[in-house]
Amino acid sequence: MTLESTDKPATMSHLFPFTFDKEGPVDAETFLSVTPSTATILKSNTFVDDLARHSTVIMGRLLQGIEVTAPSGLEGHVWQQEAVENTNDGYDEDYEEHQSDNDDEPVAKNSVWSRTETKVGDSFILWKKDIAPPATDPRIHALESWITIADTIHTPIPIKH
Prior knowledge:
3 helices; alpha+beta; Lipocalin; six-stranded mixed β-sheet; single chain; 34% strand
């Protein structure tokens, strides 16, 4: 499924080296000021664009980032959790009992994830504290590995008659 709306520009995504307590959209144009950097970097043979470096300051901490471009054919989607009407369809008492045993993570009941119309560009900025991430950053390696895994699990298996 492809998003057809051309009204909204693609959203630049950011992968920060820390977490936020807020889930959901933020007014990044007001609260996030990203400055392109002119520092030189080494040539790499990964997804990393050698020219696209950025810097910003968040909560008094300098962050340096590199722009990572996904291979062609990949699409990014923004999903949000929505409340749904309470029904007993598909009720599984054993599953609910298992969920109550795991007190570490709160379970969102009566909700479903749905895709929004927000477009995500084909690149994102990978941030690191104080210095830019190297082309060998483990998060880039995880992306490369996940693409390989996703391609493998979605490849049709031929059925022999």
